[in-house]
Amino acid sequence: MAIDLDDEILQDFLVEAGEILELLSEQLVELEQSPQDADLLNAVFRGFHTVKGGAGFLALDPMVDCCHVCEDVFNVLRQGDRAVSAGLMDCVLQGLDAVQNMFVEIQSGSEPTPATAELLEKLKVYAVAGDDEPGDNGAGGEDNTVETVVNTPSGTVVDTLHDDTDDDFNALLNAMDSGADKPSQQPVAASSTDEITDDEFESLLDDLHGKGKHAGGKPGDAGAESKKEPAQTASTSDAQNETTDE
PANTHER family attached here (predicted)? Predict the structure, then answer.
């Protein structure tokens, strides 16, 4: 099925995702030189997460699948549950290449070609805590891993980064939906009291009758006056009866 290149949301996604993919290429090269850099691990995680979210919004499933498993790999790395290895980096770079190829296909109006099942399976191995390598049969071999140390307070990294990635994805969606009318998401503050102030009531009467053309007084005052009228009427009637008797 052909891609509708006239879709404004798609065009916004292509702009935003294109910039993120370029940045991911640079960050992965840096990560090969600095595998212990926690900021880089978090940044790459956010990049894949954000592109995955935008692709999911547009139902670009092959891109979602590949970005999702790459995101899972870096989620494990940034939590310190796996060490960066040469094999892992090679596999992730292949994953990024697959996503970039899909991106080019989408730009040309074609459906993205899914990443190979073999690549996705390799990435899934790296997305699990531990030190297993794809095809590892448990036999001893040369350890080619590079220890990754994430120096952050325990219990804070995951929560913070989930907030950051949500912000990144929301920013991407805001860019994609720019120009569209949206209802405000801010709740209207409830009044601290149920009673209307004198100034508010005066302003309301001005709006209804015109400034200075109303008798004034709050609704409660009007009710009080109406309650007094029967008593006043009764008093007047008694006075008239006394006059008649005289």
Answer: CHEMOTAXIS PROTEIN CHEA, SENSOR HISTIDINE KINASE CHEA
Of 180, 96, 88, the C-alpha closest to 129 is 88
Phi/psi for 219 (5° steps) reads -55, -40
128 inside domain:
yes
Q: Which CATH number does the domain housing residue 46 bear? A: 1.20.120.160
Q: How many domains does the chain have?
A: 2
- How many angstroms separate the CA atoms of 132 and 87, rounded? 11
Cα angle at 211 between 208 and 215, to 5 degrees?
A: 75
22 and 99 part of one domain: yes
Q: What is the pTM of this model?
A: 0.59
Q: Give 183-236 pLDDT, tens digit per residue.
A: 444 444 444 444 556 666 666 666 655 665 555 444 444 444 444 444 444 444
